[in-house]
Amino acid sequence: MRAKAAMTAGLAFSLSLGLAACDRGAEVAPGAEAPAEAWVGQDVVLYLPDPVMKARVEVSALSPYVNAATRAAEGAVRAAPVQPGASGMLLLMVKPGGRAKAWVVTGEPALKPDTIAAVVKAVEAVPAPAVRQGPILVGVGFEAWGGGAPPAGASPPIPRDWYAHFAKDGGRLDDAFMARVWPD
């Protein structure tokens, strides 16, 4: 699939997110299985090529934003009722003018819709960094409550409804594509 190949052009890298394991709270009896972490952050993925990202946003602004967005997502998941484990990607798109939008992509089982809505609301409340010359797209991999199957499709993953915005013979994740999935 050309869309998948185009997406893998995004550079995956790890930022110092400081995603420490959460405090389990209650003591676990010897021999008992510890409860799964509500949120475990994983890798950070740039969906656009490194030179494009560097031209559009300062790392000194992007890293704190990704950290804050991740903490907001983690807080929303921790506040939700425990659910079956899910693995996925939190996508963060930022456009010039301080506009930001979030999506959550999971495999099976998926997070409950109200949990996804709470994550999106919390993340979109985080002030976005200044970007120039066009949008940026970053993903933060995560496991909730022990994780589940990874999202199907492209790697790194995109929301299922985004596939409709690619041409039948494939496409590229570029500015025109991002304008179609999040029009002004």
Number of separate strands: 5
Order of helices and strands: HEEHHEEHEH
User: Between the first and last Cα atoms, what is the distance in angstroms?
Assistant: 28 Å
Q: DSSP helix count?
A: 5
Main sheet overview: 5 strands, antiparallel
Q: Using the CA coordinates, give the radius of gyration.
A: 17 Å
Secondary-structure-based class equals alpha+beta
Question: Roughly what fraction of the amino acids lie in strands?
Answer: 15-25%
Q: Give the low-confidence spans.
A: 1-29
Helix content: 25-40%
Mean of pLDDT? 85
Shape: globular
Strand order of the largest sheet: 1-2-5-3-4
Textual characterization of the structure:
29% of the residues lie in helices and 20% in strands. The protein has 184 residues and is α+β, with helices and mostly antiparallel strands. Strand 3 and strand 4 (99-106) form a beta hairpin. Helix 3 (59-79) runs antiparallel to helix 4. The longest helix has 21 residues, at 59-79. It is globular and about 45 Å long. The model is unreliable at 1-29 (pLDDT under 50).
Layout of helices and strands, plus pairs?
Blueprint: H1 2-7, E1 12-13, E2 40-46, H2 50-56, H3 59-79, E3 86-95, E4 99-106, H4 113-124, E5 136-144, H5 175-181
Antiparallel strand pairs: 1-2, 2-5, 3-4, 3-5
Helix pairs in contact: 3-4
